[in-house]
Amino acid sequence: DMFAIGLENQLYYGITILGGSAFALGLGWYRCSKEKIAQSKILLATVLLPLFTAFFSHLFFCLVDVEYTLYSYSFGYFFAFWEKGYMLYGGMFGAVLGLFFIGGKDGLKMLEQYAPSGAWMIAAARIGEGFLGQGYGEYWMDESFFCRFPFMVYDPYYEAWGWALFVLEALIALAVFAFLLKKKKSWAGDGALLLLGLYASAQIVLESLRRDEFLRWGFVRVEEVLSAVLVLAVLLCYCLKSAKGKQLSKTLCFGLSVIMLVFCLLLEFATEGRIPFLMFLDVSACYTAMAGACAVLAGCVLWMRRLCNAQYMTVGKERCL
User: Fold this and answer.
1) Above 80 in pLDDT, residue 42?
2) Which of 55, 60, 119, 287 is in Cβ range 3.0-4.6 Å of 87 for a Cys bridge?
3) What angle do the packed helices 107-131 and 190-209 form, to 10 degrees?
4) In this structure, is the dihedral angle defined by the CA atoms of residues 14, 16, 17 and 23, taken in order, positive or negative?
5) What predicted TM-score, i.e. pTM, was given to this entire model?
């Protein structure tokens, strides 16, 4: 099989990443050209963005456990981005930094046009993860209809099926990709914030469900924490971008988001039976509740964006009069 837990298929992984990159860069070129961005900047982005993404993806991976990296390898390994070990949020940071560096005064415009490409590359990276035998969840010991791809992937070592989380993660990224392509034109940076907010909202529960070689600090899942921080950062950016007014709605939206994040934290501990007043919830109920809380978080991102865009469009019309 192409997908199997613990088995690497480097050929298909390479094809997926290279093919996904080619499409993403081509789409970014096309969208930037329509916005009359200088061809020299688009060419630089096409050449340098993969390097920025790979470099920071590997660097962030190493920084998660500096002591282990130095002990097992060397200081130079931090910069050896061609070696194994990547972190998706590091790649996203590298892409944003690269576009600002390349675009200069057009950095935000380029970031807006490359946002759908970013969602596409997340989907490609998740599928690639599956080819490396990663991105799976709990094992399912009983035979059922779901014991087959794309619902589950097989572990030949334990002779059991595990949930194929990488497929769900890729589908969510593709849904965001379609949404970004369809959305109406607005201010530069809106698409990037939308991508980050929606993806991070979903990733909180998806990261919690993973049972593979995920990044961690002790028992803390690194990408789950970063996802929570990123959701709050996106909401704050929308608040700062919006005009004055609607303070009650903004406060309610931000407050609800914080409540949902705290709820997710409690549910994370509840899955291990550490929260006494949530003992009535079994593991499945905890994850169902967490998924609902993440859906509310995504709704808060869309709500705050609507508040921001409504005021932004109103201010823009007043300036034109």
Assistant:
1) yes
2) 60
3) 20
4) positive
5) 0.91
